[in-house]
Structure formats: C-alpha cells, structure tokens
Predict the structure.
Amino acid sequence: MNSGYPRVLLSTAYWAFVVYLFVPLVLMVMMGFKDSRFIGFPINEWTWNWYLEVFRDTEVLEVFWFSLVIAVSSTLLSLVIGVWVASFLGPQRFRGKLIVLALTCLPAVIPGIISAISLRIFARFIQLEPGMLAIILGHTVHNVPFVALVVMARLSTLPRSQLEAARDLGADEFITFWRITLPYLKPALIGASVFCLLLSFDDFVRSFFLGGYEPTLPVLIFAKLRSGMSPEINAISTVVLVLTAVLGLWAERSMRRLDKVPPP
Amino acid sequence: MNPDPIVRIESVSKRFENVLALDSLDLAIAPGQFLTLLGPSGCGKSTTLRLLGGFEQPDSGRILLGGEDVTRLPPNRRDVNMVFQDYALFPHMTVGQNVAFGLELKGQSREQIAARSKELFEFLQLTELAARRPDQLSGGQRQRAALARALAPDPKVLLLDEPLGALDAKLRSQVQVELKGIQQRTGKTFIFVTHDQEEALTMSDRIVVMSEGRVMQDGTPEELYYHPQNRFVADFVGETNLLDCTVREESGDDIVLDWRGTTLHARPHGGAMGLSAGQRVEVALRPESIQCFAGRPDLPNAVAGRITARVFRGSRLSVTVAVGEGNDTLKASLDPFLGDHLEGEELWLGWRPERLAVLRG
C-alpha cells in the first residue's frame, strides 16, 4: 500500500479512533483534579485533594484490598484448573474433543448477567454464603477458559522431543511436567494471570450478585455513583487506570522476553 | 557374535495404523560397537531407535538390554540415552544445568555432579560454554552439548537419531570424525540412525541397511560397499553399475558370467552361491572399482569402450563409457591426475574379479 490516498485515509481513521478512545479517559482524569464538587467545565481551580481523600478514605482502601485478594485468589485458582484442563485436553485425541473444548469455553462467552444469576442460585443451592468465597469461585469459573486456551496454544508448540528427552534422562511424568512443561508455559502463565487479575478486578456483575455486605471496588463505585457523581470517584478510577495500565504493559514486556525460544 | 550382546532385539514387529514399520526384526549388538541403522525415510530405522529408547512399544517381540528384558519399561527406567535430531536441549536451562539434569535424577550428590560435568565438559570442549543457554550456542556446540547431556548418566547404550542432519556439510564431516573418536575413547555402544550412506560408511563398525521394516544387509562398511547382497543395497549405498548377466558356471571361487557376449569373472563372497549354468543374475560393480587402460589390460575382466560423457568432480572424474556395440554403458570413476579422458576417447576398462558382486535378490 504505497499509493498515498488510501494510506492517508487509513491513518486518519486510526488517529480518530485513538482520540475517541482517549478523550473520555482524559476527561475523567482531568475532573479528578477539579477543585469543585460539580463535574463539568470550566475548571477554575486545580487540586490534589480528591486523591488525598481517596488514600485517607479507609472504606475505599479496605475495598481495594478486598478486591485485590479476590482477584489474586481467583487467578491462582484459575491457573491451577486451567493448566490442568489444558494438559488434559491438549495432547489427548478422543471422540468429542471439540464438544468438551466448547463446553470448557462456554463460561467465557455466556452473558455475564446470566452466568451471575445462575451462580447465585447455585451458591444458594450448595448453601454457600454470598461473600468473598462465592465471588472468588464465580470469577474462577469465568477465568478458567481463558487460561485453558492460552495454555493449550502454548502447549501445542512444545516439541515432543523436549518431553521425551526429560523422560530419557530419568524423569517420570510428574518431574517432566514440573521441570520442563511448566517452565515452558511460563510466558503463557504470566499473560493469562494478568488477564485474569484484570478480569476479576474489573468485574461488576458477578461480584454484585455473589457479594455479601462487603462490596468490591466496582460495586463500591456503583454505590457511590447512586449518591451523586463526585470527583473522588474520578480519582479512584484514575488510580485503578494507572495500576492496570502498568500491570498490562509489564506483562506484555515480560511475555515477549520469555517467549524467545531457541530456533529448532 | 562372540561376546554377550548388549542389545538384543528378538522378532520385534511394530505397526502404525496401516503401515508395518518393523517386520519381525532380529538384531544383536555387541558392546562397544558403532552400529548404524541406514535406510530411506520410513524404513523403520527411527522406529527401532525409539523402541530401544522406550518411546514406542512393540506389538510383538522382546527387547533385551544387557540381558534384561526392557520391552515394557518406560524410558526413565532404561539404561540408554538418546541424542535427539533437534537436540531437545532444555531452553530454560544452561548447558551445565542440561547436563546435570540426568545426574540429579539419578540421585547423585552435588560433588559427584560437578565432577562428572567437569570431566565431560573437558572431554567435549564445552567448559567455556557451561553457563550459556542453548540459544546462545552454534549448531555444532549444541550438538556437543546434547552429546554431553546424553553421555552424563553413563548409559549402557547411546542412541543417536540423525544428530548431524542440522549441520552444514563442512561441519558435518568434521563432526563425523569427532563423533567416531568420542565413541572409540569412551568405548560405549553407539546406535546411530541416518539416511546418509556416506555418513554411515565414514563412522560405523557395522551397518544395518533397512527397507520397509526389514534388514536388507548387515555388515561392515567395506562388505556393504563392495559386496552388496541385493539390488536395494547396491543401489542405496553409493553409485553402482548393475549388469544383467547369465551364469556359465560356478567352480570353487570362480564364477564365470556372460555379459552380452563378454566373459566376466567374479568371486563368491561369504561361501558358495549355488549358481547353476544358464541362470540370470544381476551383478554390481562400483565405478571406483574400474580402472582404465590404453590397451587391453592383463585382467580377467576387460572391455573396450568410448567415453560418451564426463563430469569433473575435483578429486575424481566421473565418465560414462559406451561398451560392446554401444548399447551398454558403464559408469567409471577415474583419477583426473592420470589423464584428462575427454569425450570420445577410446579406452579399455578393467577390474578385479573380487570387485564384482553377484546379487542374491
């Protein structure tokens, strides 16, 4: 594509998209610095107060930690189950493999509200109190397919000779998995865990339906919104935005570095 | 075979879906041999190696290793190690860690591992590379690292699955000599798989030529080269002239043949062949076995001819010579130092009877 005209069109469309993507974010960040309760232009005075407020607000901090614990626990659980599912489904060839695969991926594509309601009913059925454990399990159900798919993709590129070499040198299947397969999966696991952390930290619907008295961060923001929009919410959102962006970029970088496999 | 074989394969068959990969293979391998399984792809040579390594299970038959039946043992419980075609070095470990892997799993102490690694690194000139990762090594270095890793646990038998395939031609011929030297210095049994006949001839004490899951011939490189038993081996190993002859008589160690009116003399190899007069046989003759002369040579086998094509290959000169009434040709490999042998030159070709191999099948 060297002819000028379509190229200009393409780049214009791209930059328009970038603007569309970032303007709302920029506005949100800006409003967090406005020295007034009312959101909107013009901004006459700038302040850090809303940020100080966020870090002083013990409720926000508690909820932040609560959400983090949920995200980390559900991620760890999803990794274990996802790797297990992938190692089971990956190399095996059996009738109905596609169906099993589709079933595995279903939780990822079911509409959040449906999955949340059904999980709520199920939690009540097994007499699981709404709260942290229920949310962790709910997020795990949603996360496992992502882990399984990423790990399966990586597993399919693992040369068979790697596993055979380990067996040949005296490793049983367990040691081979622990010392050869798992290190090989590392980039996939880092990528999948960041994805799971963000999915969980960001989730509203499941957390809302499965939660007890303690809200997660998105649920708290939702609750605060009902009592009126305040720049404090903008400040919270900005902090979350920065944290997730840093996490995402770091994951991307370390995955690229780890993904270097020696040429065959 | 006088000493007890270190490896014994007893009527092993293996089928993959509809392909019979091994057809009741029998093989006994003496300790300390450099044995090569040679054949085209799909001949069963790699399957044989994988059965020995424990990566496949035979459908029938037994595999004995040092007298012990290992047919059903998994790879980690067999005293053999393999050098893989792609080397299969562990990318997340250094060369040193790769080599230590098998020793750790044998339960050796830190000191034992360090001592054994040091010994191997010095032996294979890897000392400076021990801290590197496989992706920081050249092809030849990787090959040596893979060899060190496979030798480290001191296996009874070393299996090598076309380990030189990834190297370029020049390095390959150098590594061939190195590998043979390593085998001789360690005194280990090497079982080497290749489809490259030159590689097989260079390194082996004994070559087993395979085709379609069966052994076509089993012998030293010289036997295979000069006395192929059948058309497959004559064709697969090196270049060859195949002559359609009629037997006149076999008397003692002289076989008299008729080749389009020319009388030829051959020697039986490995006992009388039991040929009868009038029987049609194929006879193999290597281009290198043929010498050229200006006049009729004093050799039992001699024909006159004219050069119709010539290819200069540096150290040798390959010529095609039309003989008899011009319908038959012989390929000969001549020494360019002794003459230019241009196209159209009239000359005599001669060869010794023991260079003429009467094929059995």
